[in-house]
């Protein structure tokens, strides 16, 4: 079997573009992969055009390790976000083809499952008026849908610093959310890498009474010593890693013992097997894995393949029950959270277990997506 070519399909929303890639073969099997880009979609598409001609076309889709090696190292330059995302979508699609050809789910090819269900946490649910009352109501809605965990960034426009008035307001938002969800629902705090170590430590102490399940990306991701400084001074679990795009670059993070949970994005770190390898290394450092997952249903399906066979897998992020829920229709067989358990059930379907509906995808053309404008929308809802 050989790869004859690829086709790309961009599903647009105002704040993000989802890039779906179909890999076609000479035996009629087609696999699909997905990644989410913020402001770099055209760059990704350009890279994929060149990579298709240079590395992908004519390759054996079963020889995944060799194809990834050539894409990562064959062009000599360092592989950043664009290259690793391009590798990821092709790699996912090849696993999809391999699973379909053999009639088994991808998790079976990665060693077999260690669980039948994967706990989910909700994100994208708090795009509402930024008041305690509105957040309380929205958080209740999350729990009513069956989720046992959710994440929130309550910190407004804070950057490096957060004033006392804004800190008190953030505390009032979290107090309202905790009241709405009760003591047993996990509450993750997102900081989006915005704060100095001293500010992050101070905020963490303010939030401690509300029992956060983790403190996510408290400082910018480039300086791991700054992250270590925070980890040494707070008692909350630290989560980070969504903006690290090569598993080799996690080495220093593991050595520093600064993170309790790592959050690689399967769509940005080179795909399914790269994530599984990283999870295995994390396991040797007694670190859990909770992948970043703010894409669509193919990316969710790919992340679940990793989850099913990974002993140190904690939980999976899920966006599309709340933000951009209408785009779920572009994927047939989209994974869904069981409201009775708050979990995804692991699928036995061959490959990734999903199919791209090209006609439905065409209903959502590529946009000039701007994450900062979407985030800005939250801030404009803040009371004066």
Automatic annotation (TrEMBL):
InterPro entries: DgoD-like, Enolase-like_C_sf, Enolase-like_N, Enolase_C-like, Mandelate_racemase_C, Mandelate_racemase_N_dom. It holds the Pfam family MR_MLE_N. Keywords: Lyase. The keyword Heme does not apply. It comes from the Bacteria. Residues 132-237 form the Mandelate racemase/muconate lactonizing enzyme C-terminal domain. The keyword Lyase applies. This is Mandelate racemase/muconate lactonizing enzyme family protein.
